[in-house]
Structure formats: C-alpha cells, structure tokens
Amino acid sequence: MKFAILGAGGTGGCVGGYLAHAGNDVTFLARGAHLAAMQKDGLTIHRSEGSDIHVADVKACTADDYQETPDVLFVCVKYYSIADAIALARRVAGPETLVIPILNVFGTGEVMQKDLPGVTCLDGCIYIWALREAPGVIRQDGKILRVFYGFRPGQDDRLAPKAQEVETILRDAGIHAHFSDNIRRDALQKFAFVSPMGAAGLYCHAVSGDMQPGGRARETFVELIREVKALGEAMGVKFEREPVEAGKKLMDASSKDLTTSMQRDVAAGGASEFAGLVDRVVSLGEKYHVETPLYAKISAWGKEQQIK
Asked: Would you say residue 39 has pLDDT above 90?
C-alpha cells in the first residue's frame, strides 16, 4: 500500500517514520530545511521510551512536486493549512484513496469532505507527544502513539475493507491503530483533552505541570473539559470514558514541562490553531444551543491579543 504524509512534524514525522521503518512505501510531503535534511540524511525519531528510529532512505518532496496517487493520504498539517490539504487531495487522490486527517481539531474530515466530492475523507485523531526538534529530527516523548480513524455516520463506507487493512499495517509498524466504528465519539474524546489543554495553557501561560492538581490553570483546564462534555452530550455523543476524569488522569500522568503546539506557535508569533481549538467550540456551542462561557471568554481574549 502506498502512503503519502502531508506534514512531517511531530505527528506526520512519527506516523510516516514508523511506517517507513517497517518497510512500507511512504512519501513525506514537506518543505524547507526539514525536507532538505530528510532528502540528504534521512529521518530520525528520538524516543524518550525505547531506542531511536532512523530511516536512512527517505522518499520526500514538496506537495507541489508529488505526482503519485496514494492509497492513503495522511493529513498531518495544522488546521490553518487545511486549504492546502484540500488542494492537494483534489489533485492527487483517486477513487480508491483514503484521506485521513489526524489533526487536533474536531471534525476536520467533514470540513474537507465538503470541498472534495468523490473523494473519501475520513475523520481521525492521534494521541502523541512529539515535535520537530531539528531539520530531519523528531522528538517523541513518552510511549503514547495511538491513531483513531473511521467513517462518519451515513458516510459511504465502500472502502471499509481498505481502511481495515490500514489498521493492520499501522499496528505491524508499532502504532496503536484503531479503525473506529464511532469516530465522532473517539475524536471528540481526544478533543476534550487537547482543546482544553491548549486553551488553558495559552490563557494561563501554563505548562502541563501547572495543570496538575491545584491552582488556577488546573481549574481552567477542568472547566473547559466540562464545556466540551456538555457540547458532546448535546450532539448525542456517548463518551467511552468520562471526559473530566479521563482528562485529569491523562494530564496527571504527563511530564511537567509539556506545552501544546498552539502555545509554541503563538509564542513564535506565527499562525496557530486558535480558531480550531477555541473559536470552533464557541461556534459549535451556538449551533447546538450549549453555553460555553469560558471558551467564549478565552475566544474574546484571543481577539484582544490578536492571536492568529
């Protein structure tokens, strides 16, 4: 099976790196110094748990230069680059291609699908602590590497056998993959952690240790989870794990110095996923008639701070 990975940062670098290390046909679609380093020296994944992974012979090019039709296109860019992902999928995806976005933002596949008639866009999410440490180098902290993906309710599932095969390939590569029969639930379960962590971390200038027991950042994190939980319940989502308790447990098991990519992007002065991780909750709350006062407060604060 032929894989294309759009975005080779912490998420795409690990997913593609594990797949390529296991001998799969993987092409990384990247740019700049990171692309040049992979083309010259390959891709290295430094793992805090376990031995490092090095893929010496890496297939990599820019998205514009990619001319193949993949069996699976993993979309691993930031939400603000979703228009680029749609343009790529429109050009390279065929009728047998599975497009699997594994972004932080809930419902990305559905957003892409509206602009891609005739292409199968699933929804997905990932649990991982990873970032690009240097050109050609990814750092993965901890053992967590879980990918969920699946068809939305009512979606044409003609390619379900292929999606099932992808699960086997991912697992054989060392990725804990789950071809979900309820991706709406599974994606929102993850969003109920990553969105509150990003919003609370940014608003309170906090790292993960500040969101462990005690303090303003912890209270903000927990209240934001409650608002996402209420939204999910209004959407008819039956969570597999109670979101507040699951979020606190995951946070308390994390190392104390973690930040989200949104925090790092804002600190660098660039575009961030604020619209997808904060503003989107407010708009969904309005759609489903759910009050999200703390998200609304942080959304307004973000506009005052001119967060992109």
From this structure: yes
